[in-house]
Recover the amino acids of this structure.
């Protein structure tokens, strides 16, 4: 036993030393890895501290800039308040200088006199004021500008002036008129942010309104059917007149929201209307644009049924018809108050079929074109004209 034991002890010592050596190497490797991670954490911590310091400096700069902008906005708001106060004083001064709006109460005696005078001249041959002898031959071209607003409405220019402004009546009853400075602004922008707003003293109804020589002629919504003459420059009511026709009914069978259509042509102003007295057909009256007096009245042979719009060209009423299910619009009845154009000699004018039926059609005598509103689309029809004797 002695010699064997002496041999085992060195072997055990060698094995133990080898295990200790491996353990030390393992511990050294773990320590090295731990030091590397600590170094990485230190680098990341330093970088995050730098980024946090930079972000803090950036936020402080932004706060300083915001404070300067807030101070500038406060100064601008104070300046705007001063200007608004000055503007209100100027408006108050202008209101004291402008005359008060005319009384809109009905003068029964004057209205009866106007009716009697008009009836005396009813259906007489009209003495023309101009040498206009043209009539519509056909629709030369059509241009769809855009789709804006409600399915029914009215858009137009000044029928007698040279203004480029576009006036828009959205819907069939409201108290606000949108005014675009030019056709370009109206065409390019879908919203009304580029439009000025005119709030009328009385709400309007229907789509029979007219811009003529710097004035708006519109139909008042409440009470009797009253034509209001509104000055667009100083935003005041110049005159008003209750239309002297008893028991009025919608003038167009397919447009029940319009009771009076104010139209303009080369001869001046006209009123297209209908009454219970002659329920089936459309009536026409010549208006004095200054006083709103009715100068003459006519019973036309043009039926109300299936009529959707009408306009006057050179003293001739043109009534546009459609069907209950919207189809192709057409001028199917022409009545010339001067008697120079027989109904059977008038051209049957068709409008290209588009979307539905027209809620309004405004003839521009200066441009020889029609501004139409078709199911929310704004359309321009350029007309081909001929002499009445050549048709």
């Amino acid at each position: 036993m002695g010699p064997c034991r002496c041999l085992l002890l060195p072997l055990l010592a060698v094995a133990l030393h080898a295990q200790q050596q491996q353990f030390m190497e393992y511990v050294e490797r773990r320590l090295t890895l731990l030091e590397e991670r600590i170094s990485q954490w230190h680098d990341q911590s330093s970088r995050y501290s730098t980024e946090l310091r930079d972000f803090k400096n950036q936020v402080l700069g932004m706060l300083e800039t915001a404070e300067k902008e807030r101070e500038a906005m406060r100064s601008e708001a104070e300046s705007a308040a001063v200007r608004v106060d000055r503007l209100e004083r100027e408006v108050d001064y202008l209101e004291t200088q402008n005359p008060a709006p005319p009384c809109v109460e009905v003068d029964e005696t004057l209205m009866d006199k106007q009716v009697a005078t008009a009836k005396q001249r009813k259906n007489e041959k009209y003495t023309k004021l101009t040498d206009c002898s043209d009539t519509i031959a056909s629709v030369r071209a059509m241009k769809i500008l855009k789709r804006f607003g409600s399915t029914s409405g009215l858009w137009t220019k000044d029928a007698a002036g040279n203004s480029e402004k576009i006036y828009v009546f959205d819907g069939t009853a409201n108290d606000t008129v949108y005014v675009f400075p030019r056709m370009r602004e109206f065409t390019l922008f879908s919203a009304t942010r580029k439009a000025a707003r005119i709030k009328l003293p009385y709400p309007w109804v229907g789509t029979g309104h007219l811009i003529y020589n710097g004035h708006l002629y519109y139909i008042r919504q409440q009470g009797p059917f009253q034509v209001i003459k509104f000055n667009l420059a100083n935003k005041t009511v110049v005159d008003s007149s209750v239309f002297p026709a008893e028991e009025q009914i919608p003038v167009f069978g397919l447009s029940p929201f319009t009771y009076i259509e104010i139209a303009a042509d080369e001869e001046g102003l006209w009123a297209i209307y209908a009454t219970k007295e002659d329920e089936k057909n459309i009536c026409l009256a010549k208006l004095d644009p200054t006083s709103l007096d009715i100068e003459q009245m006519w019973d036309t042979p043009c039926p109300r049924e299936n009529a959707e719009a009408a306009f006057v060209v050179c003293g001739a009423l043109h009534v546009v018809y459609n069907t209950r299910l919207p189809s192709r619009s057409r001028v199917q009845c022409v009545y010339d108050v001067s008697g120079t154009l027989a109904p059977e000699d008038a051209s049957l004018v068709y409008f290209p079929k588009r979307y539905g039926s027209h809620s309004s059609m405004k003839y521009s005598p200066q441009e020889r074109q029609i501004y139409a509103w078709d199911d929310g689309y704004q359309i321009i029809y350029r007309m081909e004209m001929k002499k009445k004797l050549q048709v």
Notes: Residues 43 and 130 are 95 Å apart (CA to CA). The two ends are 148 Å apart (CA to CA). Residues 20-92 form one domain.
